[in-house]
Amino acid sequence: MNDRPSSLARVLSLRDLIAIVLGTVIGSGVFIIPGTVLREVGASVAVALTVWVIGGVLSLLGALTYGELGAMQPEAGGLYVYIRDAFGPLPAFLYGWTLFFVIGSGSVATLAVASTLYLGKLVPLNGLATHVVPLVVIVVCALLNVRGTRQSVTVTTWMTVTKIVAIAGMTVGLLVVGRAPGAVVPAAPPPMTGLAVFSAAGLAMIATLWAYEGWQYVTFSAGEAKDPQRTFPRGIVIGTAGVVALYLLANIAYIRVLGGTGVAQSDRVAADAVGAAFGETAGRAIAIVAEIAVLSALNSVILTAPRVFYAMARDGVFFRRLAEVHPRFGTPAFAILTSAAWAMVLAATGTYEQLLTYVIFSGWIFYGLGALGVFWYRRHRPGVARPFRVPGYPVTPGLFVLSAFALVINTMFGQPLRAAIGLGIVLLGAPAFYMWRRRSPPGGGGVTGSAAAADRA
CA 264, 267, 270, 271: dihedral to nearest 10 degrees? Predict the structure, then answer.
């Protein structure tokens, strides 16, 4: 008799789903990106805050759209499943392929390396340690996730609560204290006019969306949510709204203390703002908060992304062992360890920087396709229960889709070489897809693949 579990257990509550969203999104971005955005727009506070608001609204439109999809189709793999059902297995595979080899693994590698930057401000690190620590961090988080979803989410929740309380406290303190008496604010450069404003805002939007990146990762874990028809849409929307509010308030607080030009000239805006308001000791202490934020985001990515590879393997288009559920821990252990191992290779070689630069824009192709899935489901599965319907349909998902594709097209025209290389990396997955399809048994490799194929037929 085979007692091995064949599917993932539903162990995630509403609180866990919110923690995953907050834990994944709030990493190093809130401590660094505000300076990048203001530099791009010539230190214009009005334009910078507008960009942050637009990025937040766009993220909320996506969260509302995916809320309906996740409540209606609560399967492990989330976004991969929506693309597969609506557009077929090849586009879905290309998303999973890119997530495995670049986006997910590259994000893990980036966060692991970033953890040494903040740790180095607390503990002296020599050259060897800066290369070893990222690998150790990835291994520890991977083993934590192998041993149980419940344990990993508990750790993520506590780290998330800690960093949110600390960031909220920092924000309130900066808003109350304001600019230090006698502080010299650098003179602002001449304001940009005409098309230059829109061009600069477009570049700043890319940085902003990178800071907001990660709210969609919670869809990967929809198959493990308790009462997903009720909890999933609430979790993704509440979590994303919380991130938007926190980011906007933090930006206002930084500007209040340093001024727009001061923020634009800072590469460590949180530390510089806190140091200016409360002294250098407090500024160094912010490194502890940043370290917690980075580790929380890293653990959340390792928690969620392997669920896509698990779903792909069940569909027969990826390594078969990635579909196995650990008999004792009930987790997709092999999917977690395999993706973590590849992230370690990227972290050790430094190639994640180039890969992420080339393909991060292509992620928005798949985010747009996933949101288009809501129109496909409404047309082809009108009778399926929809406990949550996206408000403002079809305008809400339509705006998100148009914005996503506009961002991609803008990158293709503005940075054609980067776009071409990025799309080339994505399309390299096509031969691999057909190879796996030939090796898989007739009718697909798993229950989900067969069901999807029958639905489209």
Answer: -130
* Mean pLDDT across 106-131: 83
Q: Is residue 6 part of a domain?
A: no
Span of 20-34, 62-76, 115-129, 359-373 with lowest mean pLDDT: 115-129
Number of folded domains in the chain? 1
Asked if the structure places residue 383 within a domain, the reply is yes
Whether residue 55 contacts residue 208, with contact meaning beta carbons closer than 8 Å, is answered with: yes
* Alpha carbon distance 185, 312 (integer Å): 53
- Give the relative orientation of helices 45-72 and 395-414 as an angle to the nearest 10 degrees: 120
pLDDT at 443: 47
8 lies in some domain: no
Q: Using one digit for the tens of pLDDT, what is the confidence trace for 80-110?
A: 999 999 999 999 999 999 999 988 898 899 8
Q: 433, 307, 411: which is closest to 362 by C-alpha?
A: 411
At position 46, the amino acid (one-letter code) is A
Mean pLDDT, residues 251-260 taken together: 92
* Residue 107 in domain: yes
Please list, in sequence order, all residues whose beta carbon lies within 8 angstroms of the beta carbon of residue 2, skipping any fewer than 6 positions away: none
Asked whether 381 and 131 are in contact (CB, 8 A), the reply is no
Give the CATH number for residue 418.
Answer: 1.20.1740.10
**99 DSSP 8-state letter:** I
Sign of CA dihedral 221, 224, 229, 235: negative
Tell me the C-alpha to C-alpha distance, in Å, between residue 286 and each of 87, 254, 274, 291, 328.
Answer: 45, 14, 8, 9, 39
**CA nearest neighbour of 105 among 368, 318, 298, 372:** 298
User: Which residues form the domain of 179?
Assistant: 14-456
Output 234 or 214, whichever has higher pLDDT: 234
Give me the numbers of helices (H) and strands (E) for the chain, helices first please.
20, 0
* Helix, strand, coil abundance in the chain, percent, nearest 5: 75, 0, 20
pLDDT, position 29: 82
Helix, strand or coil for residue 12?
A: strand
Nearest partner of 70 among 152, 142, 14, 147, judged by Cα: 14
